Amino acid sequence: MRRILKSSISVLLALALVLTANVTAITSNATNVVADVKSIADVPADLSGKTVILHTNDVHGAVGRYPYIASVKENFQKRGAEVLLVDAGDYIQGTPYVNMSKGADAITVMNAAGYDFATIGNHEFDYGLDQLKADIKIAKFKTICANVLDENGNSIFVPNAMYTTKSGMKLGFFGVVTPETQTKSNPVYVKGLTFLSKDALYACGEAQVNELKAQGADLVICLTHLGVDLEAAREGNSSDIFYEKTKGIDVVIDGHSHTVMSAANTVDPVTSTGTKLQTLGVVMIDNASKSVEDSYLLNYDKLQPEVVTNAVATDIIKKIDNEYNVAFAKSEVDLNGNKAPGNRTEETNMGNLVSDAILWTILKNEGSVSVDSSHVIALTNGGGLRAPISAGNVSKKDVNAVLPFGNTVTVVYVTGEQLLEALEASTFCTPEPVGGFPQTSGIKFTINTTRAFAAGPIYPGSTYHKPSSINRVTIESINGQPFSKTDTYAVVTNNFISVGGDTYYCFSSSGTSFDTGIPVDEALIDYIKTELHGVIGSSYASPRGDITIIK
Q: Which of 36, 222, 440, 548 is the most buried (most CB within 10 A)?
């Protein structure tokens, strides 16, 4: 069974203290904290006759930690083990250290660390399929994913691979990625692709197991980027449900929900390391019995970075720091970068700042929109705000960490009725977190969570439901004026939302939109420098009260 402890954040905080200054601080994104994280001192001195699978997931650009992963691999090899290193997705996006090269630098440092296999995460699509394929070409490890199909129904990636150990044991690997990629990545970048889900996903998994078993696999390991959060479970696409529905998998190495959990090889062998290399996963296999002997998580206590990987990572970090670490502004307040409670559950001062910035970006030039300024609002998805900004100096690096996706400022024209639908759909589970939670400017509205969300049909190409009626959301005003269902409003947003990302399918069908081409992070920098005169002041000390939530 999975061994999870709900409330031991101190374990992770202690872990943060042993990492170098180049390492991104541990975030609050981990779903759970495991109780039994081991150190290298707990590992047996003699690992002869063992094959070890070291695994990572949701690294999100924490390149400063890869040298420690390589150090563990080297350490286990010196103890006599044969070691494989694998990843369960979301490695090419998340910090400027990988964003600026559109993922290529992530591949470079993973090559140095000695990865063998990786599957695709939803964020691997953030720079487009062509860029992803270009990144894969420079990878020395094999990229495997079985459930992404092209328009002809063919897999666009190599679905599986076999690894034969020195002892002759055959380990079969295959990968799957969350169907939420349809709405968790820019729909333009996944247009024409099918992400198998639910029954089709389970059938795909069984087909991979059968194929690998037919090739003589002694054990089958699935690299899943599915997660175990409520959103995935509701749709039947979580990794634990996938394991239960797919017979013949021996170990599931998971990502996506940023969960920290270890696995025993008895009931539910699903394991995940959190995010940004909080921990390192270890699956210990006995060569003689060809069975999983143990599965646990490892911290980095008393480890030195591996020299070659450290040199590669340090070069990348210095290159970006030289450009991005220079302060361009100051903040007098702490800006909320939390996931939940935070940007995915309620109005935040960070949401106010970013939505104000993109609204200003459009309205500063007269004639940018075809409606009166009283009918222009801004809306950004809370799931797109990925880091805090602390009081003090503010650098481009800080802004890029908040807005790492490279999205551009876009305007969508919608009716008041469509705006209501979008708000109802994007708050369907509030106060539970959802990435589409709207952070806004220019609109006041109320979410009554005591009322049930009336789920209609699933939006095309999505995992979210169209509301069959508007039960929970009431719009009080638009820029201080009465709201009208029949009026046309200009919604300033990002190009992820404008084409139907997250819960916003109705925006993609609105008929009229345009993309400014201005990156959202650059718009925020310009707003802070120009409109705020380089100071994020007390007006952003707390949320301004645009959203009322009735519980």
A: 222
